[in-house]
Amino acid sequence: MNVYGNPIRGWYDVDSGKITFVRFVNIGSPVGINNQVYEGYIQRRGTAVTFTGSFITVGSGSSARLHKFAWFARAIILIVPVP
């Protein structure tokens, strides 16, 4: 999986609906300085599924006052594994 062309690695807790993942941004020196850590929750209303949360970043574009940002995503296709 990827976010804006960058690979991600993450975890999902079914009981709480919490999703956590790291976006490995391929720019920056030293390598990894611009990686981003995302945390959020899945919300379901009928057939609509959305994800909302925040992410933190260091490196380019961040500062002591500007390092945590909100994010939102809407699921277009949701794949649910069959037990």
Structural account:
A hairpin with a 2-residue loop joins strand 1 and strand 2 (6-13). It contains no helices and 6 strands. The chain has one domain. The protein has strands at residues 2-3, 6-13, 18-23, 36-45, 48-57, 68-74. With 83 residues, it is mainly β. The protein has a 6-stranded antiparallel β-sheet, with no helix packed on it. It is elongated and about 40 Å long. The model has no long low-confidence stretch (mean pLDDT 82).
Q: How much strand?
A: over 45%
- Name the poorly predicted regions: none
Name the helicity range.
Answer: under 10%
Largest sheet: 6 strands, antiparallel
Strands in their spatial order, largest beta sheet: 1-2-3-4-5-6
Q: Classify the secondary structure makeup into a structural class.
A: mainly beta
What is the residue-averaged pLDDT?
82
* Rounded radius of gyration (Å): 14 Å
Report the total helices.
Answer: 0
The number of domains is 1
H/E series: EEEEEE
The count of strands amounts to 6
Distance between the termini: 22 Å
Shape: elongated
